[in-house]
From TrEMBL:
<protein>
    <recommendedName>
        <fullName>3-keto-alpha-glucoside-1,2-lyase/3-keto-2-hydroxy-glucal hydratase domain-containing protein</fullName>
    </recommendedName>
</protein>
<dbReference type="GO" id="GO:0016787">
    <property type="term" value="F:hydrolase activity"/>
</dbReference>
<dbReference type="InterPro" id="IPR010496">
    <property type="entry name" value="AL/BT2_dom"/>
</dbReference>
<keyword id="KW-0732">Signal</keyword>
<feature type="domain" description="3-keto-alpha-glucoside-1,2-lyase/3-keto-2-hydroxy-glucal hydratase">
    <location>
        <begin position="36"/>
        <end position="238"/>
    </location>
</feature>
<feature type="signal peptide">
    <location>
        <begin position="1"/>
        <end position="19"/>
    </location>
</feature>
<dbReference type="Pfam" id="PF06439">
    <property type="entry name" value="3keto-disac_hyd"/>
</dbReference>
Length: 240
């Protein structure tokens, strides 16, 4: 009888743990709510997002199994693509976001995006935290182009990306220009925007002649359409 009771208890504990884990996806705990976190993605719709320079989200961005998925096939059949951006703009904040990339895929989390017809793409103003299959995408062999890097500006302090098909958790903390990037609990990048150090990084990058790049303290957050299937979920932000 004791074995049956213990077995039932363990099964209940496992089931309960699974339930708790499931509740955390695209939701806020009581502690997070108290700390001022807000959900940027409700897990069901694209509410709060739109395609860059458009009024609404492109149908190529779909919600599938609680994740924002970029549907490459939909784009091939005529649905307009484009980067997905937040309706809101943010300056000082902590952002947490889960991502998963397809085999050989490429995407990115772009921030401080200034949305203006003068700039035809999000990356013309916003720096990017790289999202990549390091092993099978050509960028994986390029310095400062790996997952977790501040794209073309700062190489990750160490490799922290998980295997393709697994969820990664990225964090971007931006406060008064000071910027730190985290991937799966590892701090990959730390720098400060608007400083001589920052100007030197930009001057030695592909962005050196882009007049609007990294110039805006406040801006939108974007999920990049790089032509490959990618998934995002658990998108949370708190203002600092």
């Amino acid at each position: 009888m004791k074995k049956i009771i213990i077995g039932a208890f363990m099964l209940g504990a496992i089931t309960g743990a699974t339930a708790v884990k499931a509740q955390k996806v695209n939701s806020l705990s009581a502690k997070e709510k108290k700390e001022g976190w807000q959900l940027l993605f409700d897990g069901k719709t694209t509410n709060g997002w739109h395609t860059y320079l458009k009024d609404a989200a492109s149908p190529a961005w779909k919600v599938v199994d609680g994740a924002l998925e970029f549907d490459v096939d939909a784009k091939k059949t005529g649905a307009p693509g484009g980067d997905l951006v937040t309706n809101g703009e943010y300056e000082n904040y902590e952002l947490s976001i889960d991502w998963k990339i397809s085999e050989g895929g490429n995407s990115g989390i772009i921030f401080s995006v200034h949305e203006d017809p003068e700039f035809k793409a999000t990356y013309l103003t916003g720096p990017e935290m790289q999202v990549l299959d390091d092993d099978k995408h050509p960028d994986g062999k390029i310095n400062k182009h790996n997952a977790g890097d501040l794209y073309d500006l700062v190489k990750s302090s160490q490799k922290a990306v998980k295997a393709v098909g697994q969820w990664n958790t990225a964090k971007i903390v931006k406060k008064d220009g000071h910027l730190s990037l985290w991937l799966n609990g590892v701090k990959t990048v730390e720098t400060t925007m608007g400083t001589p150090e920052w100007d030197a990084l930009v001057a030695n990058s592909k962005f050196k002649d882009w007049k609007g790049f990294g110039k805006y303290a406040k801006g939108h957050i974007a999920l990049q359409d790089h032509g490959n299937k990618v998934w995002y979920r658990n998108i949370k932000l708190r203002v600092l």
